[in-house]
């Protein structure tokens, strides 16, 4: 059986993004469990802010079509979202909104898992709740374990891996749930 392919997407494109760092740590965990990983970097899928007039004049951005094509080759997708004012960031919402203008089914073929890294202790629970809501509304199967990483200044060791044993164990549980769900779906 081919190795499962896991897409890993950060909702922040900031160069020093902690959600990117969490994505890299998750890629390491998935690889150690025998999966193939692909970083899906939103810098490579730049889209304008959604506007109905723009869509009518120019259609859906090529980047949205390409993103769907890339997402649908993945058996699983891990998304790490920042939290901005208690919400998922505009970048992530705008990206998802554009993809739904192409087709609605693109989230139904892969298993999703979600995480968030924040500087404060609350670990993105409000953004995670929103991301979970929108993904399930679009028909995605989202694994039950979510990975909130709070106080991110102390969360990673010098190799970029999760430093806290409890958080690492939660990350492994999330990855295991995804890989089991992919196996059951095959
Ligand atoms: C406009 C704005 C609003 C923010 N609101 C929150 C928030 O509600 N909760 C939170 O934990 N952090 C909040 N932050 C801090 C972000 O979590 C922090 O900037 C984080 O590093 C962003 O993710 P990144 O490192 O992946 O880019 C906010 C940051 C910005 C710029």
Determine the oligomeric state from the structure. single chain
> Given the structure, what is the number of helices?
6
- The structure class reads alpha/beta
Distance between the termini: 10 Å
Strand fraction equals 15-25%
Taking pLDDT < 50 over at least 5 consecutive residues as the criterion, the unreliable ranges are none
CATH architecture: 3-Layer(aba) Sandwich
Q: What are the secondary-structure elements, in order, as H or E?
A: EHEHHEHEHEEH
Q: Tell me the number of strands.
A: 6
Number of domains: 1
Helix content: 40-55%
Rg over CA atoms: 16 Å
- The CATH first-level class comes to Alpha Beta
In words, what does this structure look like?
By secondary structure, this protein is an alpha/beta fold. The protein has a single domain, classed as 3-Layer(aba) Sandwich (Rossmann fold), CATH 3.40.50. It is 41% helix and 15% strand. It is built from 6 helices and 6 strands, in the order βαβααβαβαββα. Strands 1, 2, 3, 4, 5 and 6 form a 6-stranded parallel β-sheet that branches. Helix 5 links the parallel strand 4 and strand 5. The longest helix is centred in the last third of the chain and has 21 residues. The protein is globular. 38% of the residues are buried. The model has no long low-confidence stretch (mean pLDDT 96). The protein binds flavin mononucleotide. The site of flavin mononucleotide (FMN) has 15 residues, from helix 1. Flavin mononucleotide binds next to helix 1.
């Amino acid at each position: 059986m081919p190795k499962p392919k896991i897409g890993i997407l950060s909702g922040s494109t900031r160069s020093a993004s902690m959600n990117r760092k969490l994505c890299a740590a998750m890629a390491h965990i998935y690889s150690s469990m025998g999966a193939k990983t692909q970083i899906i970097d939103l810098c490579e899928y730049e889209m304008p802010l959604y506007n109905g007039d723009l869509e009518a004049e120019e259609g859906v951005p090529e980047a949205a079509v390409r993103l769907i094509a890339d997402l649908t080759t993945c058996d699983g997708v891990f998304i790490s979202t920042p939290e901005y004012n208690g919400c998922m960031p505009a970048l992530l919402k705008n990206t998802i909104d554009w993809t739904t203008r192409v087709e609605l089914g693109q989230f139904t073929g892969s298993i999703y898992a979600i995480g968030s890294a924040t500087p404060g202790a609350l670990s993105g629970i409000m953004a995670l709740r929103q991301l979970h809501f929108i993904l399930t509304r679009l028909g995605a199967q989202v694994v039950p374990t979510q990975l909130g990483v709070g106080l991110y200044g102390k969360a990673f060791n010098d190799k970029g891996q999760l430093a806290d044993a409890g958080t690492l164990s939660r990350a492994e549980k999330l990855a295991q749930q995804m890989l089991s769900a992919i196996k059951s779906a095959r």
